[in-house]
Amino acid sequence: MNKITSIALIAGLFVGGSQVATAQEKSDNGLNPLSLRPVHDSNIAYKIGLWRRVDLREKQNQPLFSYENEITKHLIEGVKSGILDAYSEEDLEERLTLEEFNERMFKRFEGGGLSQAEIDAGFGDETASDDGWGDAGSSDDGWGDASDNTQEPEAKSTSSTSTTTAPQDGYEMFPNEFYILEIKEDWIFDRQRSRQYFDIQTITIKIPAEASNDGLEKTLASFKYKDLEQFFRNNPNAVWFNEENTAKHINLADAFELRLFHGRVVKKSNSLDKYLDEQYGSAQEALNKSQQIEYDLIEKEHNMWEY
């Protein structure tokens, strides 16, 4: 009798702790407001959070990143047109204004000023005033006294500098420069339907480290997947490119539904909120653990049928 009571008490504590941990993800009706097809809390037998890193340059992911039809292009256009809400981070606590979003997309040239290609082409060289008609070291315009025209060229030079310096500090990055997505999802086993679900919560566009202004990987914007699903379905151009049959491209919403992408697990929900490479100290160990998590999920689904 005592043993049964103890087991019941432990089970009650486990369930109660689970409810507290997930309360912030639920609305008052017991459903996750970020879920596309929410499962009621009372029907969830098991759930963990997963973060997947999707490299759009990988062969399996290239249909999401086809030429001039990149998924990032559609997301950026959605924000600029005011259709999509962009958030500063995956917690979705701060919505970005269009100005803030554009600022994040702006790539500054190293050290400011012109790009190396423009410098090599001869633009912006202020050390010489040669206009192609005479000696660069002289202010003589070839028509008479050099002093007669000193003021006017100087004024033009000042005006030219003031109107061209600002736009030469950088450029707005192109959609194909954003090739990293991070998908946050819940792995859920629904006891009522006796099946597993991958419930995507958010999709985040990352700025690659080599493209970032400070050399660190950063977030461009995060989006509610629930919003994206409807946005994709309303956009006939938002397609997963079918290389085998170009008459049968697939809408991006269906592509995510069918899991037509590869995303390596880089983080599993944990008390310290750390990524795998932070937990295990090396990229190799993190990769091994990522693969192990995938195997564990398959085994977990199989074992849940025994309950």
TrEMBL record:
Biased composition, class Low complexity, residue ranges: 136-148
Origin superkingdom: Bacteria
Cited Pfam families: GldN
Sequence segments annotated as region (Disordered): 123-170
Keywords (A to Z) from UniProt: Signal
Range of residues in the leader sequence: 1-23
Protein's recorded name: Gliding motility associated protein GldN
Lineage: Bacteria, Pseudomonadati, Bacteroidota, Cytophagia, Cytophagales
